[in-house]
Structures are given as C-alpha cells and as structure tokens.
Specification:
Elements: E1 3-6, H1 11-20, E2 26-30, E3 39-40, H2 46-56, E4 60-63, H3 70-75, H4 77-97, E5 101-107, H5 129-144, E6 148-153, E7 156-157, H6 166-176, E8 180-183, E9 187-188, E10 191-192, H7 193-205, E11 210-213, E12 220-221, H8 222-232, E13 240-243, H9 272-284
Parallel strand pairs: 1-2, 1-4, 2-3, 4-5, 5-6, 6-11, 7-10, 8-13
Antiparallel strand pairs: 9-12
Helix pairs in contact: 1-7, 2-4, 4-5
C-alpha cells in the first residue's frame, strides 16, 4: 500500500509515516514545520496538492495536518479555518477525483465535555473555534468523499522531543524546577501516537469507513497525567500543583468531562500506563530532553 501523509512532521504525522512505512511506500509533506525527507506542500493550494498526488500515485491519503494551537484558533479563527477546514477540503477534493482512500484525524474537542467520555453515537457540540473547525471539516468530508475514514482521538503524546508534545513540556518544566500547574477538573483519555496509528491502519486495511473513536483506555485528569509522567521520569511530583482549569485563564474554553470511547472499534490491546512509560523512557534517552 502506497501512502501519502499530509503533515508528516507533526506528532501524529510522524507516527503515520513511520508505521505506514512498515507496510508499504510512504511520501510525506510538511509546511509550517519542514523536516528532512519531506516534500514542502501548502495543502490549501489545490493545484499543488493535485500535482503532488499525481507524482506520488498513492493508494491512501492521510491527513493529520492541522492547526492544533487551540488558543490561537480562538484568537484568529480565520487562520484556523484556513488550515483546519480549507486545507483538508483541498486535499480531499484531489484524492476523491483520483479514487483514493482518505484518512482524516479529528479531535474529541468536537464535544462539549459535559457528559464524557463520548462515543461515535453522541452528538457533537464544540465549545471552541478549533472544535467547530474540525467538525466543519468532518461534515464536508463525509458529504464529498466516498472512501473515507475519520479518526477522532484525544490528548496525543509521543516520544518526540518537541514543545508540542505534552510529555516533553512536562519533563522540561520538571527539569528546570518550575512549578507545574495542572488541571484537576479536566478529564480525558491520553493516547500514544504510535498505538493510535497502528489501530487506524488496521481499520483501514479492514475497509472500515465513517467516524471512529480511537483513544487510550485510561481516563484521567491532566493533574493525574502530569504526576504520572513525573513518577515515571524519577522526579518528585511535588512541583505538580493541582488547579482548576478556569484558574489558568486560557483563551479557548476546554471540555472538562471529556475523553473518547468507541462502539465501532475494538479496544486497544495496550494500556495507557504502558504506553506512557514507553514514551517517557524514549524521551529520557534523548539529550535534548535533559537526560
């Protein structure tokens, strides 16, 4: 199976490129975060996307690319809409014209977080601009793509030593001795990027279509997750301070009672605890993580 990964330099995109390469050829693209071996591509440029797909001749197009800075999306919704809605549309249009499969990654932030965790049968009610943008993209793709898998997921982490990785940010703060405020009232299902992609690839190969939820088994608060990271890394969890999410005064409202479960996909064979230990262990072996 030949894969194209639109946005292969992000957390999910990096995992897609690595896992898909185990089962076939992969071509990846990047735009805001260029990386060696990836083709520069603005996914909002429909003609450029079409040329790239004609050159790559894939069987499936993965779209993990997104503007995931939810606070910036709240402050600048036009920017977020361009990346999160128009970009996936352009890619999907080109893929549909060529009869290609499309896998689009979405978010638990399409829900309001009042009565989580949420299954595929629950109606979306986003609280923030980012969630509305991802839901707009989902609905357009469902209306226009005939070979489509939408994967909603939540609280992604990986072994990446990059600021957008939550595990890495926590380790940086702990290493510097800074206090680490973490919301005690925000619940979700942390998800290891590599496991997410392996499960998505299995669904794709089985011919699954439509919306599927894939997330970690364990549901916990941001505070509990942060203390778990500290313990796995050998740090004193004392600097991890429990706070209410509202005290952080973030521009975009977040769902509180969140997380995902699935009535369409089999549960992950791994626990979030095992996955988190893997990610933290790999990060600690990287010099840029302070190991």
């Amino acid at each position: 199976m030949r894969s194209v990964v639109i946005g292969a330099s992000g957390q999910v995109g990096t995992a897609v490129a690595a896992v898909a390469a185990e089962r076939g050829e992969v071509r990846g693209t990047a735009f805001r975060h260029p990386a060696p071996g990836l083709t520069p591509l603005d996914m909002t440029d429909g003609e450029a996307v079409a040329r790239f797909l004609d050159e790559a001749e894939p069987d499936v197009v993965w779209i993990p690319a997104a503007a995931t800075d939810v606070d910036r999306c709240e402050r600048d919704p036009e920017w977020g809409y361009t990346v999160n809605v128009l970009g996936p549309r352009r890619v999907a249009e080109a893929a549909e014209l060529r009869g290609l499969k499309v896998v689009f990654f979405s978010t638990d932030y399409v829900f309001d977080g009042r009565h989580g965790p949420y299954s595929e049968d629950d109606p979306p009610r986003p609280l923030m601009a980012y969630g509305r943008q991802k839901l707009d993209a989902e609905r357009w793709l469902l209306d226009h793509c005939t070979r489509l898998l939408i994967v909603r997921t939540a609280w992604i982490y990986s072994e990446e030593a990059r600021p957008r990785n939550f595990v890495y940010r926590v380790l940086e703060q702990l290493a510097s001795g800074q206090p680490v405020p973490a919301a005690i009232d925000q619940l979700n299902t942390p998800t290891y990027a590599s496991d997410l992609v392996r499960r998505a690839l299995d669904l794709l190969e089985r011919g699954t279509q439509g919306v599927v939820h894939l997330a970690g088994r364990d549901r916990m608060s941001r505070y509990a997750l942060t203390r778990t990271i500290a313990g796995l890394a050998g740090y004193d969890p004392g600097p991890v301070r429990p706070v209410r999410l509202a005290a952080l005064q973030l521009p975009a409202p977040r769902p509180l009672d969140g997380g995902l479960v699935s009535v369409r996909a089999e549960p992950s064979p791994h626990t979030a605890q095992q996955d988190l230990a893997t990610a933290v262990g790999r990060l600690l072996r990287r010099p840029e993580a302070g190991a």
